[in-house]
Amino acid sequence: MPNTTLTTGKQRGRRSWxxxxxxxxxxxxxxxxxxxxxxxxxxxGYNTFLLRxxxxxxxxxxxxxxxxxxxxxxxxxxxxxxxxxxxxNFYNLEAAVQKYYGYKYLVPxxxxxxxxxxxxxxxxxxxxxxxxxxxxxTTRMHQEMAGGTFVDVIIDEAHDSQSLHPFKxxxxxxxxxDLIKRVGAEKIPYVSVAxxxxxxxxxxxxxxxxxxxxxxxxxxxxxxxxDATRAAENxxxxxxxxxxxxxxxxxxxxxxLCSYTDGCTMSGKKDALVxxxxxxxxxxxxxxxxxxxxxxxFEGLHTYGGMAGRDMEAMARGIxxxxxxxxxxxxxxxxxxxxxxxxxxxxxxxxxxGGHAIFLDARRFYPDMPxxxxxxxxLAAELYVDSGIRAMERGVVSxxxxxxxxxxxxxxxxxxxxxxxxxxxxxxxMDVTAEAVEAVYQRRAEARGLKMIYEPKYLRFxxxxxxxx
Length: 469
Ligand code: PLI
Prior knowledge:
Strand content: 5-15%
Bound molecules: ligand PLI
CATH class of the largest domain: Alpha Beta
């Protein structure tokens, strides 16, 4: 049995945190039996993306679009100006992005990948290289579809689930410089910098590293495009771990971080506390003009980009709430709470604990299972059957195939992500989750692995189907 004595902050030698909000509306959850769950996961082809949400008890598939909005945001929804052009909510959103992220020009998009599509088309030519601090699935897909090749230039520690480096999201400057020397700066339209780095375990980049990347890029005339999806969360880690930032607010740190970049893509569905929405922001007028022109082809007019007026208002207000220190302390504190329980109980997870999720190390759950038997996919299915908790594979299935060789890409990290939606679940849900994970860990010797029986061409992890071996 797990040792459940160490749950309060006081017992851990510090004061407890609590959420800076109280609950106003609740959504009932369905509790299912093990037999029902066995049937549901088989019908879903052992892919948690294909489960019906009503068959899920605690949904930790993603923190994307799963946020609970505040009464202030819901009140803003009623102020939606649904004009086709020039909605007042667009101008409110533009003002919020300018104020908190500091970029000059805003191009709204329906979500993050809409913005990634536009920037990839604007900046990438066939044959180009796009270095980045680890890939993200949709980001790399758009870079490749525009004819580019993604090159991983993150520090080696990021690929090691046990390295305790506090900024595992850092760019390896030597790797970046080597690439520039090898292919030439003219073949590198921009460096794609994510803050935090999702696939590395929600790991942050330091301000110093961002400054260094800026200096290197200035020397070679290369742009930097930030993936700002969880940059406010990154700002919190800088505040906690980087010298000189303890006394600064998340809002100030976020603005400084963005100031070293030329623009950003954003999935508002994460940091910005909404259920849908995103944007591309830029400082260069000519690039902005081209992006604004393209957005009308793919997303919608440049003053809504695929969002309703009410969505833009909710996001403008969500941005303001997302940079409050109290909010961030509770948000990351909850992730840390779950992670600390698992560490205490000896369950292998990625450390340090990241911003938006706990990542289970499936290689260490199943050390004898070959990666071709999809250990992380297996673990996510086992966890669902045990408890009704839905997690997500972040291993060989997510990595996909190399477009040149057609072979599986075998990432070093074979992970299952327990992603915590913002302001949705309580500490009791975290306790239930930790106990379920621990139970699956105890039964790890029984797991058999899976065989892929259907594989879609693009972003296969969303729709692939499997069978037990
Ligand atoms: O899901 P979108 O299209 O709004 O955003 C794409 C996207 C871009 N960058 C990063 C770092 C992401 O995490 C991201 C989406 N992430 C999802 C859906 C997730 O479950 O993590």
